[in-house]
Amino acid sequence: MEIFRTENLCVTYGEKEALKNIDLVIRRGEIFALMGPSGAGKTTLLRILNLFEKPTYGCLVFEGIRLNGTQTEKINARRKMSLLFQTPSVFNASVFENVAYGLKVRGADKRTIEKKVLNALTIVGLEGKEQQRARTLSGGEAQRMAFARAIVYDPNILLLDEPTSSLDPANVAMIEEIIKRIRRERGTTIVFATHNIYQVKRIADRVGILLNGELIEVNSIERIFEAPEDARTKAFINGEMIY
Amino acid sequence: MINAFSLIFSLNPYILSITAVSLKVSGTATLLAALTAIPLAFALSFCNFRGRQALITFVNTGMGLPPVFVGLFIFVMLVPAGPFGSLNWIFTPGAMIIAQYIIVTPIITGVSIAAIKAVPSSIMETAYTLGGTRKDTIFVTLHEARFGIITAILAGLGRALSEVGAILIVGGNVAYTGSVGGIGEGLSYTRTLTTAITLETSKGDISTSIALGILLITVVLFVNVLANAIQRGD
Amino acid sequence: MKNKYERVILVFFLISIFSGCIKQNELILVTTTSTCDTGLLDVVNKKFEEANNALIYTVCEGTGKAIATGELGAADVVIVHAVQAELNSVANKSFINRTYIMSNFFVIIGPESDPAGIKTAKNASDAFNKIAVKKQYFISRGDDSGTHKMEKSIWQAANITPAGTWYLSVGRGMMETITTADIKGAYTLSDRGTFLSMKEKIKLKILFESDMTFLFNPYHVMAVNPEKYPNVNYELAIKYIDYLASPSTQEIISNYGKEKYGEALFIPAVDNK
Q: Which chains touch B (3 or more CB pairs under 8 A)?
């Protein structure tokens, strides 16, 4: 079942074509990896999916609704998603207040907020730290808090932009565990951008290879690594391209 | 010197009334300035409208406005021969508040805008990705900038308390009969710590001047210490 | 505003601040620094306030500023001492009811050693001439006050335009000018009253005072013309003028300073027509 479908998506910044003719389908409940070298357009694509930016051309279908027009449709769609950046932006407040933000803007009541925030913190392994000033967290802790912040309102889809690139191995493992757990317990769809092949092998179901703004191949994990269809995919996987 | 301290600790009414006028005038002016400046900083930071650039230039010029010029301007406006003369506000604390308001508003606006600008755009983006509307993201930014904005207000207050030239012109340094020529039994009407120091020093009454000076520096120091504490709490 | 109480408090606050604009029994008096600094008005005005249940707001600036302020309508009554300027402002109908109330004399003060030797001067302009010739430090009020205008007329009579490093214009009140002259050991022109009130604190002495014609310093009180500015408190201004000219007040003036400084600082009008 589709959760996202892009049709002939194009994004151009002035002269530069950041994304060209993207036709992509994301299935509900899957963990989809978006791979490619730096500058390939991964971040741009994620921002389009999050409705953070508008495509220059083409259209986006989310849960069966073509997203072209009204503000209400867009806000409702956005509120079912989360987008996480490589380094989290932490509000100058307590951990609790940070994590509660998404629920606050959705108008949740105090009791619901308290329950869900504590629950989210437990999932990411930050229980007990609610009152700590968020700015005093370590890098790994901050990223986990950002995770809690992103899942506290039960989004249907989680978009992650290189979520572990700046973390040490212990925290990488923790984050990957959280990703798997959320999909397992809540059925959340997850799309994450990375250039870490090993990570892809560890947690993804399907992979899409993005090169110079073009989606050159989309396939399941096994087939991509064992029998890639495109020569460039093979080269990328073998580490032949510099990025 | 000892005389100066005894003036303070004996709670001399003249000295206390001068302090009260200083605090009342500067406090009110700063409050009104903050109520104007913060929404203005908000609008200039987030909204795009015709005349925005002109308004920014206006604010920047305002920050460097010579206070005596403001005093002169208000004086000319408020004398009976002037356009607002019928209000009868010349030589009143109200006129002093107006002058200080004009001097302080650009300062609070300018520093607040800088504080808002210092908030990284990733904060707004994060709020957006978490499902916030544009209005939500603006409030998040203001909340992140809150320490800077409070510092801006305190900077304005400090500036207002130190002001002397403009309020001398529009206020007239008036004390009720008994203290017209200096410390006596009359209380202050438009005499502030700064303008009183000017008067008492020019008359050679040094111990009264020192007493006033100590009070002035205490108040200003208190404001600065407060600003510092808030910044460090950030 | 969060609630009704805050709104009420704010309204009271605003009223208290702007209550200066409720002009019941209030008089705005703008005058020169010598009447203020000597403390004369603190004594004289008190009786008037009590007798008339009034409040006098005294603004001490300088004769030039006082006349200018009155011409702009921001005063009800002024007390100044610059005859020519006063006559001009009466001629252009800015002021009326000009009344002579007191006087003193100007004196030329300076260091006791008197390096310019003005003690032997023939008259005021001769004294100034000696100072200029010897290039001794001279402090000028420079603020267009009555004293300053007198000083300028003396220079004019001596046919001298004072300029050079020895001539310092400070733009301040009388007491401050005297203090500056004291520090620099300089000459200056002062009204006798202010000098007497500072005599104990400074080293300068009166070196020349015998030019009675030139150095005569009369003070007049004038009311701002209500035809020009209908909002002035003319009624109370007239009462004040009458009060100043009345025998009891004139007596207060004739005694003011005797106890504290050894002699009266001002001469009442009744004694010196």
A: A, C
Which residues on chain B are in Cβ contact (under 8 Å) with C28?
91
CB-hemisphere CA count at 13 Å for C92?
11
Q: For residue B192, what are the contacts with CB-CB under 8 A and spacing of at least 6?
A: B18, B21, B22, B25, B26, B96, B164, B167, B171
Q: Is B39 on the interface with C (CB under 8 A)?
A: no
CATH says B2-232 is which class? mainly alpha
Domain range annotation of chain B: 2-232
Whether C253 contacts C44, CB under 8 Å: yes
Contact A52 B136 (CB under 8 A): no
Subunit contact B130:A91, Cβ cutoff 8 A: no
pLDDT mean across residues, chain C: 88
H or E segment at A2? strand A2-13
User: Is C172 in Cβ contact with B186 (below 8 Å)?
Assistant: no
Contacts B81 to C, Cβ<8 Å: 71-74, 229
DSSP β-bridge partners for residue A6: A24, A60
- Give the residue among C59, C48, C32 at the shortest CA–CA distance from C217: C32
- Shortest distance between the Cα of A70 and any Cα of chain B, in A, equals 14
- CA dist B173 and A211 (Å) reads 76
CB contact under 8 A, A89 and B140: no
pLDDT in tens, A88-141: 999 999 999 999 999 999 988 999 999 999 999 999 999 899 899 999 999 889
pLDDT given for residue C20 in this prediction: 47
Tokens of C67: 């006349």
Question: Given pLDDT bands bounded at 50, 70 and 90, which one contains residue B164?
Answer: very high
What percentage of chain C has pLDDT greater than the value 90? 58
Q: Between chains, do C60 and B181 touch, taking CB under 8 Å as contact?
A: yes
Cα–Cα distance, C74 to A147 (Å, whole number): 68
Minimal CA separation from C158 to chain B, in Å: 30
Residues of B in contact with A50 (CB under 8 A): 129
DSSP string, B19-75: HHHHHHHHHHHHHHHHHHHHHHHHHHHH---TTHHHHHHHHHHHHT--HHHHHHHHH
CB contacts, 8 Å: B84 with chain C = none
Are the C-beta atoms of residues C130 and C100 closer than 8 Å to each other? no
Average confidence (pLDDT) over C223-251: 94
Q: Which residues pair with C189 in a beta bridge?
A: C108
The C-alpha atoms of residue C185 and residue C201 are separated, in whole angstroms, by 14
The verdict on a CB contact (< 8 Å) between B130 and A50 is no
H helical segments located in chain A: 42-49, 71-78, 95-105, 110-123, 139-151, 169-186, 197-203, 221-226, 231-237
Give the SS3 label for residue A204: coil
First and final C-alpha spacing in chain C? 64
Q: Which residue of C2, C17, C47, C50 is the best one to mutate when testing the B interface, meaning the one whose CB has the most B CBs within 10 A?
A: C17
Task: For the beta carbon of residue A168, count every other beta carbon within 10 angstroms.
Answer: 11
CB contact under 8 A, B178 and C229: no
Q: What is the ipTM of this complex?
A: 0.85
- Which residues in chain A land under pLDDT 70? 68-70, 240-243
Residue C183 forms contact with B (CB below 8 Å): no
Q: Say if the Cβ atoms of C59 and B174 lie within 8 Å.
A: yes
